[in-house]
Amino acid sequence: MAMFRNLKLLLWKNFILKKRKTLVTVLEILMPLLFCAVIIYLRFGSLPRKRPPVDYKVIDITSLPEFFNQFPLKNKFQLVYIPSKSETLKNITEMVKDFFTVEFEVLGYPSVPVFEKYIIQDPKAFYVLTGIVFDHNFNDNTEPLPLEVRASLPSQSSHDARHQHEFS
């Protein structure tokens, strides 16, 4: 019973305070209603506009962008392949190098940690254009590629499916 009496007293005090400041009480009630009305008006007043689809120009991926030829460089750009003990991977990377008009240097690294150490510590790593990691254990340097190859970018986690590609 004492709890209900305290609640009744608290409500009565609150009513007296609200009665003394009627303007504040009215504003406390009307402001949320006003904001809701403004939001509803803006929502229904702004109709979605239909726009035509955007057609972008075709990009030629058989050649490199022009800036590769415009700036003089101290070193050649580098193409990196991992693991380095496979002649097949070296030949594939050499074929990619020969495909473009820009001169590349082909480098092979035995493992991803060695390549990451090179990227972090060597200033010549600035010129690494790309690297390809082939997830296959080659027994000797003349072993051909298997029918299914899993390749990924070396800067990404090997479990990141967005940057892994299987070729068959």
What descriptors fit this protein?
single chain, 168 residues, alpha/beta, 5-stranded mixed β-sheet, 5 helices, 5 strands, elongated, disordered C terminus, transmembrane helix, transmembrane, membrane
- E-strand count: 5
N-end to C-end Cα span: 81 Å
How many structural domains? Answer: 2
What assembly state would you assign to the polypeptide chains in this entry?
single chain
Number of helices: 5
Uncertain runs with pLDDT below 50, 5 residues or more? 156-168
Please compute the radius of gyration using only Cα atoms. 34 Å
Spatial ordering of strands, largest sheet: 2-1-3-4-5
Q: Which structural class do you get from the secondary structure elements?
A: alpha/beta
Strand content: 15-25%
Q: How are helices and strands ordered from N to C?
A: HHHEHEHEEE
Per-chain topology:
Layout: H1 2-20, H2 22-45, H3 67-70, E1 77-82, H4 87-99, E2 104-108, H5 112-121, E3 128-134, E4 149-152, E5 164-167
Parallel strand pairs: 1-2, 1-3
Antiparallel strand pairs: 3-4, 4-5
